Structure to design on (382 residues):
């Protein structure tokens, strides 16, 4: 119970100390109630991205007085056999799903709500896309609205975000020895980001991380193939084709991040493909067309579940430096995958402290063990 309370209080850092104390007390009351329900001398991190923070600024509390508009979006059959809407009263959704109503923890600076369920705990403010699921930062596709003094959640976030998370971990029907394709980012002339301290390159660290992870997973029943096993440049389309040729059950691309001259930015980011109709968390200047559908969108729920699963185990290693589970549409290494697929940014090489850790083989072994723990086969078969 204490751990749930701690997780739900992660995002209260922006509030005053007095408000934090009040919110914490309110949260404990809620939980006690027990309501279950250079090669090219590249300055940027290419071909994926150089990190530049894009965090939606919380808007003022929406002063809407009209009812939520109708739309043609439908929910999943189990929870949302109601009239289709764009914005759905969250209290009504919770009642239909068999959960207790969310508790309002604060009205300022933004109305903030907590939902406690058996699958996990959700904490979100109206007016901001930044939410938390079991203490892990989550970017919603749309900032929740506050209408008639109650929270409304966008239909796509209910169907593509909350319902998959409440359904639990990523499950598939693995063969006797399921196949994982590991993709060490970059290679050859495409060196990726450069370390701020060791002057090594991202391509070296991702390959070593992948090799260590492969060694651990093959002893746990996985068949593991690496898209590259040496220092060679490989087109993103060839990495996708490699996974297809090997009939992969899962695809995991490994990277380390960079914020250029910003030496303070640090932490873990995990990415999956943006669902149809939803804006991406981040675009890096690429066109982001919500009307586009890609083959990997067929695995939207599994992608999100897998991303949270591995993000959680990696946070135990990196000291809980959490930059969230995010969605992006421009990642061509994910878009055409015919299987659950995610991309992990294991830390910032532009941050001296993180760069020193990443350069340490013992730390890369810890990263490999964390991913291997998240990929325990027996948990997929439950």
């Amino acid at each position: 119970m204490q751990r749930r309370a701690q997780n739900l209080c992660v995002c209260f850092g922006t509030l005053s100390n007095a408000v934090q104390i009040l919110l914490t007390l309110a949260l404990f009351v809620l939980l006690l109630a027990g309501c279950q329900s250079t090669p090219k001398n590249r300055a940027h991190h290419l071909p994926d991205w150089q990190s530049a923070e894009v965090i939606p600024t919380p808007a003022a509390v929406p002063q809407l007085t009209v009812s939520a508009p109708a739309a043609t979006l439908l929910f999943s059959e189990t929870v949302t056999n109601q009239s289709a809407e764009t914005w759905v009263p969250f209290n009504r959704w919770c009642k239909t799903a068999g959960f207790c109503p969310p508790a309002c923890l604060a009205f300022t600076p933004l109305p903030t709500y907590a939902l406690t369920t058996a699958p996990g705990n959700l904490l979100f403010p109206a007016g901001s896309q930044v939410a938390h699921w079991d203490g892990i930062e989550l970017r919603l596709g749309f900032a929740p609205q506050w209408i008639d003094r109650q929270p409304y959640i966008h239909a796509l976030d209910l169907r593509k975000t909350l319902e998959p998370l409440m359904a639990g971990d990523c499950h598939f029907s693995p063969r006797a020895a399921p196949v994982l394709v590991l993709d060490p980012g970059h290679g050859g002339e495409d060196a990726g980001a450069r370390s701020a301290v060791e002057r090594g390159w991202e391509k070296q660290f991702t390959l070593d991380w992948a090799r260590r992870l492969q060694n651990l997973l093959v002893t746990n029943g996985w068949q593991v193939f690496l898209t590259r096993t040496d220092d060679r440049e490989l087109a993103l389309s060839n990495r996708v084709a490699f996974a297809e040729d090997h009939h992969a059950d899962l695809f995991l691309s490994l990277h380390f991040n960079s914020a250029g001259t910003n030496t303070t930015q640090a932490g873990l980011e995990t990415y999956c493909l943006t669902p149809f109709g939803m804006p991406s968390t981040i675009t890096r200047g690429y066109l982001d067309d919500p009307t586009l559908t890609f083959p990997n969108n067929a695995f939207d729920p599994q992608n999100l579940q897998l991303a949270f699963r591995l993000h959680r185990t990696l946070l135990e290693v990196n000291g809980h430096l959490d930059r969230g589970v995010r969605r992006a549409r421009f990642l061509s290494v994910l878009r055409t995958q015919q299987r659950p697929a995610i991309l992990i940014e294991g830390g910032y090489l532009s941050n001296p402290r993180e760069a020193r850790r990443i350069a340490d083989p013992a730390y890369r072994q810890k990263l490999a063990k964390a991913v291997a723990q998240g990929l325990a086969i027996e948990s997929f078969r439950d």
